[in-house]
């Protein structure tokens, strides 16, 4: 057993330390955050709890228009930068909030009697300056916040019609998204609102806008559901329907400002019964989000009842968060832990792809595949080693990938990314049911098409395009500096070759003859010219399913960078793979 294996076994044997929200969120590849006020970072309980429990922070106030843009030509980022500094020191992500809102705008703006053209210039300058300042340090922004009324009409604001920036309907929102994308092309851009978590006139209007934006290629990446709840959050089914329709647009859903305000006495205390009801709501929301791989962030609006906006805004209500005023975890905290720990993983219908070319239209016996999007797994990448019998494990790092119930040998795994070799037992079937399992929690099943061969050529950039993973007979990588010679053999590495003779054993690392060879006929073209195939099959050191193809570079092949295609049993490898020829 390898050292890393031994370490993993030991880890698995020792009782896991009490896991924090952050520990479990990391296993969910979920960003779990809280709104913060940087003036409180000096309070040790505040800072310690944040670093232990969250992998994301957002600015409750200091990244808004008023604090970042205090004068027509002055910007101030000191407080906002301190959030980024705090987060980076703790390997936390920063979520930005918010460029465009009708609240927290400075007096110079709201009393300036600007024309629409002037407001447009001001807003463009604001978004580009603030977005540009945080580019690369803030991974997502609430670009526009609370632009709709409860009845689905657009709210009258300085940016829309008071007097607005000179655009009609949602055009001003679109314009803000376009400016934000110019400011930071890598940032994820969200529309954020409250009372639009379930299905209602407001969420319908937001959804229609989002669908229009997606259709027209407006740079929007998600919808933020603020989730400021009372004890009556309405229909969970409707909230899930809303998250489903958002994610079916290909957009992400973020729970951005979760808190559940409840009745409190004059000292701000709630009864145990009320706190239990609150805990169930927290559990429901986390459980619902985890049903959708594209629900990728949950944030509470603050995290301790010591600092919450609720009591000042809703007299008689409070105790809305997961930690009490002394930073002790409340039932709501444990309810979220339970949801993160106990909810089954979910895998996306299109999550399983060929590990070489990322095509997900089918799988073939032995094919090395990668499953993306499973939202429960190891927090960091763990790589499997072969056992004493040179077999890769089918139950590794508490993870299994099942094809019609047969566990596949695993190459590596982490939350959201698991690579395995399809069991040869799928041969002859036309489809297979695929399930992912972590810590005994089994995912939904997805149906994948099964074909005899589904070749993908590995590439040097591991993105399935460009220079193929190809060696010359001296086992040197073929590239522009070491182009393949005509009349010489090259070794092409691929997967998806299908059944072999003799039969291959799932997960066996090839070591001794006879190494199984592909049964289906194999051909190779370079630059469109047929090149003789001398060998196609397993290779010493490769797991069964990994394929080496030895081909002779035909003298007729043109020199230079040439397209290379492998065909197995009539199925061609992906376009876009190349090889340099002398
Ligand atoms: O920190 C300054 C202080 O330096 C200054 O002297 C004082 C003068 O008014 O203002 C202080 O800033 C206050 C800020 O909170 C920081 O505490 C602002 O006045 C106050 O308006 C601001 O309130 C925030 C409010 O948004 C308006 O920006 C709340 O903390 C914050 O919880 C609330 O959050 C909003 C979300 O952004 C959008 N969704 C609703 C949510 C609740 O209203």
Task: Give a quick rundown of the structure.
With 582 residues, this protein is an alpha/beta fold. Helix content is 24%, strand content 26%.
Description:
The longest helix has 18 residues, at 116-133. Strands 1-2-3-4-5-6-8-10 form an 8-stranded parallel beta barrel, surrounded by 6 helices. Strands 23, 28, 29, 32, 33 and 34 form a 6-stranded mixed β-sheet that branches. Strands 12-13-18-17-14 form a 5-stranded antiparallel β-sheet, with no helix packed on it. The chain folds into 3 domains: 22-342, Glycosidases (TIM Barrel), CATH 3.20.20; 352-449, Sandwich (Immunoglobulin-like), CATH 2.60.40.10; 456-581, Sandwich (Immunoglobulin-like). It is α/β, with parallel strands linked by helices and 582 residues long. The protein contains 13 helices and 34 strands. Bound molecules: ligand G3I. The site of ligand G3I has 11 residues, from loops. Ligand G3I binds at residues 37, 60-61, 64, 103-104, 145, 194, 226, 257, 309.
Radius of gyration: 28 Å
Number of beta-strand segments:
34
Span between termini: 44 Å
Mean pLDDT across all amino acids: 96
Q: Note the beta-strand portion.
A: 25-35%
Estimated structural class: alpha/beta
Any idea what the shape is?
Answer: globular
Q: Numbering strands along the chain, what is their spatial order in the largest sheet?
A: 1-2-3-4-5-6-8-10
Low-confidence stretches: 1-15
Helix content: 10-25%
- CATH superfamily label of the largest domain: Glycosidases
SS field, number of helical segments: 13
What's the story with the biggest beta sheet?
8 strands, parallel, barrel
As for the number of domains, it is: 3
What is the annotated CATH architecture of the largest domain? Answer: Alpha-Beta Barrel
CATH topology of the largest domain: TIM Barrel
Please write the CATH class name of the largest domain: Alpha Beta
